[in-house]
Write a structure and sequence with these properties.
394 residues, alpha/beta, TIM Barrel, two-stranded parallel sheet
């Protein structure tokens, strides 16, 4: 098999999206953001359309593909900072990339800029190309909004401290958009209030994801308790099926790929042309290529097709090995200095959550057929105590 076929079958065939990191400035200074240090150091405000054009042509050249072959089966995601921080420049970038033929474009955004645009400006932005443009609002809701204070950059641009959620809801309702609050362990007592804020005020079931940093035993217990309250709240409101699945972390699933995140299915491009493992694990030696120079075939294959967290030594004997979606490798790198070693307290949390939910909810009980439930029970009893576990199940 020649190198071109190896790249096709072991690298590109797995990629469903192309992510351009177009901004390294942000209006927020989120307490849990892993990119804050990068943003504060970086001189890059926003890439220009001609830079994106050059990057894209080099991308096609280095992989030896036509635009139809490379972009036709995939969508494009714009990432930052806040990728919308200069929305007029974004329009020019979209008009450049649209000609390459991706299926659609997505923008995860802190919503600071979009909420201040007029309806005319929003319509101009969303209709500037023929492909659909999808917005994902990364906001935490009024109970937890203090987690996302303005940065010095945001204050300099004179943004309001408080987000206008009524305005955001109207934008989402009129133009389409989803909400993605982050669940920080340190404020888990507010998790249910966050869910109620979106549901009771706007009838929205937001996508939920814990920020999986190291945590204490007590915090782990309280976090599982709060997630149970959220699941119970939705069940009381008769939220089920696909609507409930939008809530993500409180529903059961099995991820067939090696990680639950998009790291293995997205090609990430940094402003300097580097192709890193993901947009969090961006330091050498976890960069597998650069569009200005070459790609390392061995690393590309290892980081796209071979890596599977279930084969990490610490995971091989784990009772939830099949059902666990793995940890954030960037977080593991920041914790250990090595991305391939899981954080033990997160392992304990994930096992506790899997066991408690498998005893309480049908979808988790069905998934539990794939795990060693006796070993899992033994592990969680040892980690947090039998009495504490039983209290969570009651």
């Amino acid at each position: 098999m020649n190198l071109s076929k190896i790249v096709d079958s072991k690298v590109l065939n797995r990629m469903t999206s192309i992510e351009y990191i177009i901004s390294e400035k942000c209006q927020n200074n989120c307490k849990y953001c892993y990119r804050t240090y990068k943003h504060n150091k970086s001189p890059i405000f926003h890439l220009k359309a001609f830079q994106i054009k050059i990057m894209t042509e080099r991308l096609l050249a280095i992989f030896g593909k036509t635009k139809e072959e490379f972009f036709g089966p995939r969508y494009v995601e714009m990432y930052g900072g806040d990728p919308l921080i200069d929305y007029k420049n974004v329009i020019e970038i979209l008009q450049v990339l649209s000609s390459y033929g991706p299926k659609h474009f997505t923008f995860p955004t802190n919503a600071r800029l979009i909420s201040e645009l007029t309806d005319y400006d929003i319509e101009t932005f969303l209709n500037c190309i023929p492909q659909p443009i999808y917005l994902s609002f990364s906001v935490d809701g009024d109970p937890s909004e203090s987690n996302r204070p303005l940065s010095k950059f945001g204050k300099m641009l004179a943004y309001d401290d408080k987000i206008d959620y009524d305005r955001l809801y109207n934008i989402a309702k009129k133009y389409g958009g989803g909400f993605h609050p982050m669940l920080e362990f340190d404020v888990n007592s507010k998790w249910l209030d966050t869910v109620k804020f979106f549901f009771e005020k706007y009838n929205i079931v937001p996508y939920l994801l814990e920020i999986r940093h190291a945590l204490s035993k007590e915090t782990s217990i309280n976090a599982v308790k709060e997630l149970s309250k959220i699941r119970d709240f939705y069940e009381k409101e008769n939220i089920e099926g696909d609507t409930l699945r939008r809530a993500n972390t409180i529903t059961s699933s099995i991820c067939p790929r090696g990680l639950g995140c998009s790291a293995l299915t997205t090609l990430h491009i940094l402003p300097n042309g580097d192709l890193p493992f993901c947009h969090r694990l961006i330091d050498p030696p976890w960069v597998w290529g650069n569009i200005n120079y070459s790609i390392d075939i061995s690393k590309a294959v290892s980081y796209r097709s071979i890596y599977d967290h279930r084969n990490v030594p610490e995971c091989i004997a784990c009772p939830i090995r099949i059902t666990c979606s793995g940890q954030c490798l960037g977080a593991c790198y920041e914790y250990w200095g090595d991305p391939w070693i899981p954080i033990p307290s997160i392992c304990d949390y994930m096992k506790l959550k899997h066991y408690v939910f498998s005893q309480k909810y049908k979808d988790w009980k069905d998934t539990a057929n794939n795990i060693d439930i006796d070993k899992l029970q033994k592990d969680v009893y040892e980690a947090v105590g039998e009495d504490e576990v039983k209290k969570l199940i009651c």
